[in-house]
Structures are given as C-alpha cells and as structure tokens.
Amino acid sequence: MITVPKVDKPRYRMRKCDIATNMLGVCTHDMHFVYVLPDWKGSITDG
Question: Looking at CB atoms within 10 Å, which of 4, 32, 40, 47 has the fewest?
C-alpha cells in the first residue's frame, strides 16, 4: 500500500476523488520485469 502525504494528495486525486498513481512496467515474454517507471505522467493503456 502507498501512503501519499496530505500536502501531495491533490496531485494524485482522480476524477472520482480516489487517490491513484500510474506506473509504466515493461516485461519479457516470460513475465519478468525489465523496466519500471513508477511516476508515469498522464493516462496510459496497456499495449
């Protein structure tokens, strides 16, 4: 679980008032992570 400091909560608030963050994860065909970027900006979808 991630705890966001109270001062930073407005930056992570979604349109339904939940707190969320995006991350980019790249993995191999056998599902091993080879790259993780935990502060991905904006909305993304999986490819």
Answer: 47
